[in-house]
Amino acid sequence: MIKRYYVQTKQLRKGMRIDQSVQDRIDRVLIKKGTILDEYLINGLKELGISGVYVSEGEEDETANAGDKEAEKLSAIAKNNIAKNREPDPAKVQLSESVKKRVSQGMQFLYNNTESAEFVSTSNHITKNLLKAITDNEAVAVDIATLKTSDEYTFKHSVDVATMSMIVAKNMGMSQSDVYNIGISGLLHDIGKSKVPLEILNKPARLEPEEFEIMKQHSMFGYQILNEKKDVTDMISFAVLQHHEKMNGKGYPMGVTSEKILPYAKILSVVDVYDALVTERPYKKGLSQRTAIEMIMSMTEELDINSMKSFLASVILYPVDSTVQLSNGETAKVVKNNKGSVLRPVVVGMESGTVYDLANDLKCASILIE
Hints:
By secondary structure, this protein is α+β, with helices and mostly antiparallel strands. It has helices at residues 39-47, 66-71, 76-85, 97-112, 119-136, 144-147, 156-171, 176-188, 198-201, 209-215, 218-227, 234-242, 263-278, 289-298, 305-314, and strands at residues 3-8, 17-18, 22-23, 29-31, 52-57, 142-143, 315-316, 323-325, 331-336, 346-349, 355-357. The chain folds into three domains: 3-57, Molybdopterin biosynthesis moea protein, domain 2 (Alpha-Beta Complex), CATH 3.90.105; 70-88 and 320-364, no CATH class; 97-316, Hypothetical protein af1432, CATH 1.10.3210.10.
């Protein structure tokens, strides 16, 4: 059995296994969750001013998986109904390892060289790689569980936001040019964090109110960085400026309402909120993808409804062929995703063979995926 507990950095010892990711001031992952600590890594944590981290010990109980293996046994009627009702998911974004490597190198360059003459060309190159990954297989959806680029890739947040935003824009019927510019905006939406003091960006705890006020300036800092570059359009720089604005005027830095927020920023805001909710930080655990989706759906006063609807229609929470647990106690296989009802796909009970259309069958109204 695995035990997880908090240890002060000064008490860390070589051989301990860290049970969280550690990120630098611009959200690049320095230590991947599950890494075995050595003296070099422990000293690095001390130099960053991180007071403590979560570590774990022990191994998973093999007997705990026995039930899962048993659940994989399908009844004859279940197999038949799965075959009859299975409808593959729409084409999803696929990032090859070579693309990930190229984009990773490019992102590291951008965040460390905001004044470089190659800043804009590097941004364009990265976006072209992402756009090609979308267009090569005519992707119109994102599997939000597998898109997460995993802790070993330093460009996680910015690439996730860029990729999801491009898919959302594409599904809203935006032009190829707009989809491309949305990608650049997503890549650079947090570039202003490079101007925020290190002690605030690296703080392994929640920010104090006065610290958060400084952090909120990253939108303006990002705008200033991009506004000085003649090859960056106003639409992109203003999207970076406005990505924390809210439809009801309660966002920042300007507190403007819906009619003054650009379409790019409206899309970025939805995707950025989602990714922030599911991302684990030293001071908080990431929410489950389902919980984050539910929270997004509740934010109708803050987020643009059209961008939200497109986002919900673009993401796949329960991929076809995945196994889920229903609130009625039955284990089921996902056979079809209902467009626009990301939380309620069509599933088949693995023992009973019952087909549950969670979105459209009123008899299933009280059944939830747990």
